[in-house]
Every structure is written in C-alpha cells, then in structure tokens.
Design a protein that fits this description.
The protein contains two helices and 28 strands. It is mainly β and 308 residues long. The protein has a domain of 104 residues. The protein starts with a helix and ends with a strand.
C-alpha cells in the first residue's frame, strides 16, 4: 500500500508541475540504488546533500542554472500531511495543501511568494511586487509601471503615458514615446493616432491617413482619398466622380452622362454616346453622333459627315 507521505508528495509535485517525488522505500532509482530518503515518515525530516540529488520544490530559473553549474544545495524536508516543508541555504518552501503556500528565495534573484488560496496571493522581487485579492482587486508595482485592476476597471500608468479601461464600454490611453493615442467606445467609436498615421471609425464614417496619403468616406454617400500623386472624390455615387493625376496634370470629372477632362495641353468634354469634343495643342476631335465626326492633326483637318 502506498504510504501517506508518498501520496502527499505526489500531490504537491502535480500541483506545482515539479519533478516527481522519489520512489518508495526500497525501490531502485535510475542509478539502481535504493532511495533511503523516501523512508521518512510523517512528522520526520529528510536531508539531501550530494550532487545530483532531487531538485528542490518550486525550483526557479536561477536555481536550475545553479544545478547546471553543479551546485547541490543541502535540502531539509519535513512532512506532516497536509503540511509540507523544504528548506536549503537559499530557499524555503512551506505549504498547507491546498490552502496556503510560502516560498522564499534568498541571494541572487531574491523573491518571496505567499498565497492563501484562492483569495489572496502576493510576490516581492526587488522593486517589483504584486498583491491580488481575487477576484476583486489586482495591484502590480514596478519601477517602469504601476497597474491597478478593480473588477472590470483597470489603470496602467508609466512615466510616458497611461492606459485606462472600463471593460467592455470604454478604453483610452497614450504613449508619449511613440506619439500614440487611442480612444475606443465599442462598437461605435474607434480612434488610433500616431504622429504620421491614424485611423478613425465613427459609426459608418472612416478616416485613414498615412503620412500625406489618406482615405475617408461616409458610405454610401461620400468617398475621398489621396495616394501619392493621385486623388479621388465620389459624392452620392454614381452621381459625381472626380479623379486627378498630378503627374500628368490631368483632372477628370464625371456627372453622368456628362464628363469633363482637363490637362496641361488641352481639354475634353462629352455627353456620351452622343457628343464628344476634344482640343489639344496638336490635335482636336468633334463627334455629334450619328451626324458628324471631325478630327485634325497639326494644321490638317478632316471632316466626315455621317450619312443615314
């Protein structure tokens, strides 16, 4: 039959995700040698001190590094279920499973953890610390930031800005280092702004900018934008369309069925498919469908009356 000491040790290892407890008295270890420390019964102490012995309960990253460097702490253990204790020259661990635990790391990477589960938990590590009164209040302190959470309300503060939220109704904040600001009232209002870019969504209105380029609109009534050297404007589409090309010095305006195009060297006008007039420095065209079509190139001219 499995002893109460072995059963309690297995529970501690499972909860803390640690290496399994040693085999029962008399069982062979991986090296083929019985583990005498497992013979400790309730209310007795066991001690480990040789290199390669078990990792202390709750080993941290620093302690694992020490083990890789052949550091072998002498660990004293005391078991009186549901109480369990481990102590070495650098660490102390106590638990009254599953209601209470305490762990202290001394020296490099010094840290303490304490929990009265599930209502309270805290840790202290240098200038950083946390206190949690579950589920009502969470408090985190660090030289770089401070955070407080009260139920669904949170506030994060730093030297460069802040973040505030009252979930799921309101969120806003800023970061002066990145020239960044945001305000969110879901699902109606979303605003994210940086020094040279930004996005705004208010209802069905949107506005996106990136340096000198932009796109904005109020669907389905209005759309406008700029992309490098081109711009566009649509109002009550398909009633009004306007496009410009600053490289070609060309602008096209469409009010169906009319259109007008202007450019640096001329212009065009039409009522398609019936009328079309165009004039440029070196050419011109005229169309009055189906009766007349004329064009010229340079000083020449041609006329082609349409016959029914």
């Amino acid at each position: 039959m499995i002893s109460s000491t072995r059963l309690f040790g297995a529970l501690v290892a499972a909860v803390l995700a640690l290496p399994a407890v040693p085999a029962a008295a008399g069982e062979a270890t991986d090296a083929g040698v019985p583990d005498d420390s497992a013979t400790a019964g309730p209310g007795t102490e066991a001690e480990d001190g040789e290199a390669g012995e078990r990792v202390p309960v709750g080993a941290s990253g620093i302690e694992l590094k020490e083990l890789e460097e052949d550091y072998a702490p002498r660990v004293k253990r005391f078991v009186l279920p549901p109480y369990y204790q481990e102590q070495s020259e650098r660490t102390t661990f106590r638990t009254l499973f599953p209601l209470f635990f305490f762990r202290e790391r001394r020296g490099e990477g010094a840290r303490t953890d304490l929990g009265v589960m599930p209502l309270y938990w805290r840790y202290r590590e240098g200038p950083s610390k946390a206190d949690v009164y579950f589920p009502f209040y969470w408090r985190f302190r660090d030289p770089a930031f401070e955070t407080d959470i009260v139920l669904q309300t949170y506030l994060n503060r730093s030297a460069h800005g802040f973040n505030f939220g009252f979930a799921p109704f309101l969120f806003f904040g800023k970061d002066d280092r990145q020239s960044y600001r945001y305000q969110v009232v879901p699902p109606l209002f979303w605003n994210f702004q940086r020094a040279e870019s930004g996005f705004l969504l208010a209802g069905i209105y949107y506005d996106h900018r990136d340096r000198g380029d932009f796109d904005r609109g109020l669907p389905p009534l209005f759309f406008a934008g700029r992309n490098r050297d081109s711009t566009y404007l649509l109002a009550l589409p398909p009633l009004f369309w306007r496009f410009t090309d600053e490289v070609a010095y060309q602008t096209t305006t469409v009010v169906p069925p009319f259109f007008v195009r202007t450019r640096e060297t001329g212009w065009s006008f039409g009522l398609l498919p019936l009328l079309y007039f165009a004039l440029d420095v070196n050419w011109g065209r005229t169309l009055v469908a189906p009766f007349y079509y004329g064009s010229r190139w340079g000083q020449g001219r041609s006329c082609q009356p349409k016959r029914g």
